[in-house]
Amino acid sequence: MSDEHPVDVYPSMTVAKEHGAEKEEKIEPLQLGKRLKDFRMSLGLTLEEASKRTGLARSTLSKIENEQISPTFQAMQKLAVGLNIDIPQLFAPPKQIVATGRRDITRREEGKPHPTTTYEHELLATQLTRKKMMPFKSRVRARRFEDYSDWIRHDGEEFLLVLSGEITFFSEFYEPVNLSEGDSVYYDATMGHMLVSVSEEDALILWVTAS
How far apart are CA 205 and CA 184, in angstroms? Predict the structure, then answer.
């Protein structure tokens, strides 16, 4: 649920040959990290979810998408299988798309469900690809700080609006704050954060994650 800072220089990808090959093959991709992120976002996957699908560490995926490291051919194979894409797709020149209008209506309770141990997410606008924002509603199941094994962190910025109930918003660099229906918070999602419901009923929130 989103991502990274844009970079001006995109390094070439190094395909590391197995078993100690004498020479590495250099491939010059067109913004490979950005294209990988676009594929991931089009599937509505967070970095954590993509990590589980591909078997690559979340930190590795983030560095690839940020062009901080070049993936090996083995990593590319895992990405292709996990994200259900063909490797040649990543190196084909991108098509020029002239948008005349984009719209995606999600009827009440018709979003894509995505339950976790602490949240019950409902992903919205799932038919649109290459979104710059990822909107979703969440029912906050967590009731204690200890319900989380660690801070939640991911790339991008995030906006949160409480639709009903009351939550405590915990963040890495600030004191906890209670938010009630109609309250909102905008924050850097790379900062550790987490929510717990403190109302009698599980709180319902709207989240928008922006890349």
Answer: 9
Nearest to 129 by CA among 44, 48, 51, 66: 44
Mean per-residue pLDDT pooled into runs of 10, the chain (211 residues): 33 36 46 83 89 92 88 86 80 63 87 91 89 92 94 92 97 96 95 95 95 77
* Strand partners of residue 140: 119
Which of helix, strand or coil describes residue 208? Answer: strand
Rg for the chain, CA atoms, rounded: 19
User: What distance in Å separates the CA atoms of residue 18 and residue 74, rounded to the nearest whole number?
Assistant: 9
Q: What CA–CA distance (Å, rounded) separates 126 from 135? A: 9
Kindly tell me the burial class for residue 205, based on how many C-beta atoms sit within 10 Å of its own C-beta (0-12, 13-18, 19 or more): buried
Nearest by Cα to 36 from 1, 74, 86: 86
**Domains (ranges, CATH) in the chain?**
13-91 (1.10.260.40), 112-210 (2.60.120.10)
| Helix-then-strand count for the chain, H and E | 5, 11
The upper half-sphere exposure of residue 71, i.e. CA atoms within 13 Å in the direction of its Cβ, equals 26
Angle at 43 between CA 111 and CA 147, to 5 degrees: 65
**Which residues, 6 or more positions from 22, have their beta carbon under 8 angstroms from its beta carbon?**
none
Give Cα 21 distance to the centre of its chain. Answer: 35
